[in-house]
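Annex B. Sample input.
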Amino acid sequence: MRKQLVRTGSTTTGLAVALTLALTLTGCGGSDSGDKGKGDSTPSATASGDAGSGSGSGSGSGSGGASVDGTWAAVTDGKPVAMSVTSGKVSLAAEGHLCEGEAMDMGGESMVSLKCADGDKDRTMGTIESNDGKTLVVSWQGGKKDSFTNGDTGGLPTGLPSDFPTELPKDLPTDLPTDLPTDLPTSR
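Annex B, continued. Sample output.
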């Protein structure tokens, strides 16, 4: 018996968008750098304070002075990009890449520095060009430029996929096994 997965472009895109936003909004992710527990008491650099000075509010700010903290969404080149910033810590999901890092002030210039889990370099160092609290524009050294909308203020960017399927596919397999055990142990 052969099982087949049935996917359509809009289903795959819709699921990818939903998963990306869910992971970003819930702050799911972690550091694999092996530095857990190291430096936890030392303030990190944010866009509103210097590294180690303890003067940063942790909220970060970009060009224009508005806080970068929040949930941000963009559509760049027709693809969704989601970014979450909390106390200067940044998580970004774009084009199948998950990246983490921080927002910081680099000599008066607000920057976002990220490391992607898969080594992607498209969005690893970005300059915050503008931020009015509703729209955040980041230009990345890799050449990309994202214009984010603040999801915390109730806005979403235009161009997000809207052609999600409303019905199950008609050609689902019907020859699934029916003799599966039902007395499996459960954990409590």
